[in-house]
Structures are given as C-alpha cells and as structure tokens.
Design a protein that fits this description.
The protein is built from five helices and four strands; from the N terminus they run αβαβββααα. It is of the alpha+beta class and about 180 residues long. The protein has a single domain, classed as Roll (Bacterial Protein-export protein SecB), CATH 3.10.420.10. The chain has a four-stranded antiparallel sheet with strand order 1-4-3-2. A hairpin with a 2-residue loop joins β3 and β4. The radius of gyration is 18 Å and the shape is elongated. The relative contact order is 0.20. The C terminus is likely disordered.
C-alpha cells in the first residue's frame, strides 16, 4: 500500500519531435506583400493518445499553423510533438483519460509553441506566439460532441479516440487562430 501511495500518477519518460515541417512557398515575394496586407492566421490543434503497453502511453500534440494573404500562402508549419508517459496503475479510467487529453498536452504545449515561434521567425516572419490553450475546455467540447454524435452508437470511452480529438482540435483551433499573438 505504501508503494501505491508513493507512485506518481503521471511520469513523463521522454518528449520529442515526431514530425515537423515548415514551408515558405512564396518567398521572397511574400515579404513585400506583407508590408501592404496582414495575413490571416489559422491554427489547428490535435491531441492523439496511443496506448503502448501496461501503463505506458504516447501522447502526440499536433499543431498546424498557416498564414494566408488572400489566396497566397505566406507559410505553413506543422509539428507533431510527442511524449511517452507512464500513468499509475491505480487511476480510474476517467482520470486516466483526463491525464492523457489534458495534463500531458499542457506539459507539451510550451515546448511545441517555442518550436513554431522559432520556425516562423527563422522563416522571415514575426514569431507566431500562441496564447495558452485550455486543454480542459477542449476535452469537454470533445466529450460533449462525442456524446451528441454517438448517443446510440456505443462509442468507446477510452482515451485513444484520435478522430474525436481531431474534431475538438479543429473547433479549438478556430478559437486559437483568433487568439494567436504576433501578426505573421
């Protein structure tokens, strides 16, 4: 019993860039265009957990950012930033799901945000400084959407529903796109 009490509910074993790209397809001409017009920013957020074995999980935070001036792309940035985590065996299923969908992305976000800010700055644009994301609200929106869509389908309540997290990420991204600081 003393061992169970001493076990941390969440241990981050490693974190890493899983996939990463930055495209600046219309340089150098886009820089002159940006002096006349501000780009429209769009940021999409996804959280995708995957059960590896036992209490071991991989959680991937996907960030997709784009800036458009009319029909012209200023930049496209994509980042999948992930962590391998261990969850305590004694966690209830709903707590386990909240750890994977809220707490782990909350830990990963500052690192992923810094990478995207560096990408945009290194690409010749002002750094894209994203406001913090409320992963708790994103999770609740996902749960409400899943409940309304799958009321009669017997949907799984496990933390690994990537399709549901993608939908909530897109919904949250509309908010996040409006909240992104720093005009690119």
């Amino acid at each position: 019993m003393a061992e169970e009490a001493a076990q941390a509910p969440l241990t981050i074993n490693s974190q890493y860039v899983k996939d990463h790209s930055f495209e600046n397809p219309n340089s150098p001409g886009i820089y002159g265009t940006m002096r006349k017009e501000s780009p429209q920013l769009n940021v999409n957020v996804e959280v995708t957990p995957a059960h590896l074995q036992g209490g071991l999980y991989e959680v991937t935070l996907g960030l997709r950012a784009s800036a458009m001036i009319g029909e012209t792309t200023a930049f496209l940035a994509e980042l999948d930033y992930a962590a391998v985590v261990t969850l305590a065996d004694n966690l209830e299923e709903n707590v386990r799901e909240q750890m994977l969908m809220i707490e782990v992305p909350r830990f990963l976000f500052p690192f992923a945000r810094a990478i995207l800010a560096d990408d945009t700055r290194d690409g010749g644009f002002p750094p894209l400084i994203m406001n913090p994301i409320d992963f708790g609200q994103m999770y609740m929106s996902r749960k409400m959407a899943a409940a309304s869509e799958g009321a009669g389908e017997g949907a799984s309540e496990g933390g690994g529903d990537a399709a549901g997290s993608e939908d909530s990420g897109e919904a949250a991204a509309e908010k996040e796109g409006a909240q992104a600081n720093g005009q690119a």
